[in-house]
Write a structure and sequence with these properties.
Protein name: Glycosyl transferase family 4
CATH class of the largest domain: Alpha Beta
GO biological process, one term: lipopolysaccharide biosynthetic process
Number of strands: 13
Strand content: 15-25%
InterPro entries: Glyco_trans_4-like_N
Keywords: Transferase
Organism: Olleya aquimaris
Number of domains: 2
Amino acid sequence: MDKKKVLIITYYWPPAGGPGVQRWLKFTKYLPEYNIEPIVYCPSNANYPIVDQSLLDEVPSVTIIKQPITEPYKLAQLFSKKSKTISKGIIAQKEKQNLIERLMLYVRGNFFIPDARKKWVKPSARYLSTYMSDFNIDTIITTGPPHSMHLIGLKLKEKLGVTWIADFRDPWTSIGYHEQLKLTKASRAKHKHLEEQVLNNADQLIVTSPSTKSEFEQITNTPIQVITNGYDTETVVVNKLDEQFTLSHIGSLLSKRNPEVLWKVLQDLVENEEGFAAKFQLNLVGEVGEEIIQSIKTHNLTNYLNNVGYISHNEAVKFQKKSQLLLLIEIDSEDTKAIIPGKLFEYMVSNRPIIAIGPKGADVASIIKETNTGQFFNYDDYEALKQTIKLHFNSFNQGNLKTNPIGLQKYSRKQLTKFLVELINPS
């Protein structure tokens, strides 16, 4: 029996680093086991904000088609050194932006709708129309952000009548950074219109959280399936845990995601808990916003900070597995309730307790509770957070700080791929 061919349209693909690339890198790894042949379409010259060459070793033996893309970031770099950080999502606070940076955000938000990859839509649709006809491909999957990928799907749906599955790793118009893009009323309306077109013309929608599903159900009657991110089997081996009482955050920690409550708790414990200062270490692994560093300094924690910076995925996994506690921080906003970061699932199989801080009603909280992998706190849970870290420190001193996860299997990448296959080949 011939394998069913499925075209996957994505912007992020190795050597791109960061969480955006992991989801479809892993799906393409397991799809062939279910008699599906994935064909990946991605840019040949993308201006990736984060690069991780080690991920090239994980690319499975599948067909990969590449076409050039025109992006504005190289031109923007002539005017501002912060253009690359803006492309990563590290948008400065209003009072920190100079005139050129404010202008860049205005241009980005109002002239590049839905995003800075919009110029790739028409040439990609032309190229793929011919390719799909030549190779008898009748199913496509688009994954965003960037949501320009969904506009390629929209054009192919209109032209060829293919089966189209649109995968949303994040929401569209409700995402938090839209507020920082200085959108005009007309630009907001255009985003909403494009979002509605995609949601209503796709044959199937995939989202990564229940909250996003609920949001989209108010806009469309198109079927929506939640398929979260997940974990894969890792070959990285760590022989022993850190000797220090390490709290580690893996991934970008941007300035809007500044957990003042955590810094206050840690300062309190350093100053008042016997033995804590001698053993405590804070690891920040990944991009860190300037305001975060300043807050840590304000709370007299600089001497305990190990600011590692961005490292390869394998090195990040080592930090996860050897740390005493793992930190998961999300912005305290209604807009971020639906965000379930991919690193949560890697945290869960690292067998280290998770301390998560985020908004009330966050989807993350229910997953952590359901899997017994840690505790979730709101930004005003000072005393509960303090007591929990204190208890973990006591367990660390006694040599029995551990976690007892349950029900993780359904979040394995292979099991999640099975859910995807059921959408590609509905019975």
